[in-house]
Sequence to fold (580 residues):
Amino acid sequence: MKITKNRIISVLLMLVFALGITKSTMMTSAEGTQKLKNEDINSRDSYILVHEGKYYLYGTRGEAPFGNSMDGFDVYVGDDLENWEGPYEIFRNNGDFWATKNYWAPECYYINNSFYFITTFGSDDRNKGIQILKSDSPLGPFEPISDGPITPPEVDAIDATLFVEDGITYMLYSHNNTGIYAVALTNDLTEYDGEPFKLFSADDAPWVRTGPFGDGYLTDGPCPYVTKSGKLIMLWSSFDSNGYNVGMAYSDNGKLAGNWTHEEETFLDGNCGHCMIFSNLEGELMLALHSPNGNPAHPTFLYIKEENDTLLLGKEDNTDAIKVSEIKLSRQNASMLLNGTLNLTASVLPSNASNNAVVWTSTNDKIAAVDQTGKVTAKGIGRVTIKATAKDGTNVSGSCVVTVTHANASKVAVTAVGLASNQKAANLYLVKGGKVTIKGTVTPANAKQEVKYTSKKNAIASVNAKGVIKGKKVGNTTITVKSADGKKSTNVKVHVVKKAKTVTNLKVARKKMTVNVKKTAQIKTTVKPATTTYKVTYRVKNSSIATVSKTGVITGKKKGSTKITVRCGKKKQLIDVNIK
Fold:
């Protein structure tokens, strides 16, 4: 399976044309970050997280990867794999963190509505180690979830990746050039949950040669992949006679603890490596790596495909693939008691879809979490949406609204029904054909939180069980939000108009706001005319310092200053935000 240097160059050129990459033009965006091409970014150990229709590119800073001046990590954000905005700094050692060098090979995982950042750190006082950090945003900031590395001081560990086998999360890593190892982790990912075991050594592969550092055989960047039939493959990097490259190994029983055999020749041979596998937004398999293996190094992306229980370079022919058109869950609405469980199933249509796999997510893991089998666990009082999304790149999904209450909630009398705090207006305006969502609330919090929505005139505006109102015909109607027992309710007057009224004025209550770290503050706005159907939107310049929700709630992330742009129609306001 030898891929020659000339072959990888031609493949890279094919990818360049496939992605429409043109001559590099480095620009500065309106937000103050740079707009970059792949060749503008000096980064090693490329890693891609695909999240909510965006690509997040992580990697090792390439300017001095082997020196003692490393102190942080960055991320770049893009809508494709060519054009990036960044860098956004997501972690920096401000002097109170133990690691002073070897900030290497970061990976980012989205697990139960949180982002986990697993990476290598080093210092002069101990061996290199693996530590995991956490954030509620892929843009950080990331904070350690343990006091130090999860690898012991005597282990010189680098290049960790996570892999789930039989419901257990394993950490794979390279150990001091002696080989690739695996160890089970606890559910909170803070420590070992068993003894490490060795998968294979670099010198087990016939193509490997000693590297330029003169300290034995190198085992870098383990990248596991399971084929459709259950065969376990490992891509990994080391040196051969042509430089730094990628090899392939196979487990004989589909398990980490199996016996591993290696291809006679490298999978890639173009002085490139440290790869990871991901599916792009179209559902196609791709390889991320850095190339060349020098300074500078750049993020590089190659199409790969699964064929005959192995991986090959090239774009998979999906012309005959049957895409997912609809996903139906076994329940669209469900009530759960605190600490209870519920099993949801997803029916993927058509039944002969080429890829019927789904990803389960919850809008709030603190209220109800869902695992990848569809099992929902109620953890807090409130309402969430459980979603199953197709993995074939279509982003088709099905959802279930889950309401969690106390065990005795049905016995607690409802005293009032209202709307969410950001929806106090008694009048809503929307354009014919437009949609707006309202969220009913029940008081007290320990009463049954279910509400029912009805429209007085469905021909003018309809409302579904999730509170989504759709304007159907010009006119006025009333939406009633009623408690499950029917005893308490509130009304919202809905006005469906033919055309949106132009925004003549937008004001914010405060143009300078101060928020403490981990605290929140609400942006208050006034829009004229009040009858406009344009929505107020919010955008923060530096989300590592503060975030802003769709409803204008600012959350302080770390000390610093940033700006928030508030828009409605063609009007906008800027707010200076100080986080202390």
